[in-house]
Amino acid sequence: MATHSHPDPQHFRTLVETHQRMVFSLALRVTGEYGTAEEVAQDAFLELHRTLSGPESKLTSADHIRFWLRRVTVHRATDALRRRRVRPEALAEEWLDDQPGSPEADPSPELNAAVLRLLEELLRSLPEALRVAIVLRYQEEMSPDEIATLLGQPVNTVKSNLQRGLQLLRKKAAITLKEYVR
Amino acid sequence: MNPLDLSHDPLDEPRSEPVEPRFEGAGLQPRRYVPGKTRALAPEGPDADAAQIFSHEFDGQLTQALRPVDPPPGFAAKIMELAASPAASQAPRKPKLLVLRPRWQTPALRLWATGALAAALVACLFTGEQLHRRHQQELADQQFLTAVRITDHALAVSTAQTRAQLLRAGINLSN
To answer: Model pTM greater than 0.80?
Structure first.
């Protein structure tokens, strides 16, 4: 029977505090739900704790731990998304209906904030693969090669997903904004 | 630049601040976003502020929109508390998956169904073979009867001609 040794609590706390923003944001952008994102982030860190407690933990460097956390978070978040079986398109429509206020009444700085919020919300309407690629690219500032390694996909697939995602996002943003200012 | 040319893709470049707009010339559908086209989509006049989404700043705006957010307060403490509990070192038990199969998919019935299917297949093959053989036999019978009929006719004609010739020569074979 394998024996488990707990990792140094202080070290683990440092890891959690260092990566919690990244892990939670990643989970939030992929799942689109605050509560689910919290659960996913929690699961990812507990999984990290279990892995570090393992007899042959291969997570030695900080870069490796960050890579590992990103991958586990993305996988857990996409799993959570699939379990909910929510159509992202429907989510986006709901959000657009419920959007408080309109840019017409907003002054310019607030309009900018509204645009940023709109972009973030429109991201939820993208298909899962495109959304994950864009989040990793623009939130985590990863290169297509790094994304491909993380997701275990060919680089061309990642590039294609990025291009299609951006194209779709721009198109949706253009249409939505045009309707707002009408 | 050919948008499909992936040999040089600015997406490959490392991202760093300040974020430069990369849509134009980045191989990301530049034809779709030429200024004339975006102006046609973007609102005009007093709503020009809203048109910023269509500008070159889209890339930067996306980065801004996707900046990391803080987790809920007390998140780290909660993780530490959960990690300290004895259950944390054990892998979460996956819920046992209850597989519901239709009745006909149970192993015994599947065996029977396979056997019945095999028997039906053998019966079909046997019947087919028999039908084919019978058909060939009927065809052969018909050919034989046709051949007999043709031979009879030829013999009758030949006999009549011979008798006629003999009669002309003064020989009468008839009784």
So the answer is: no
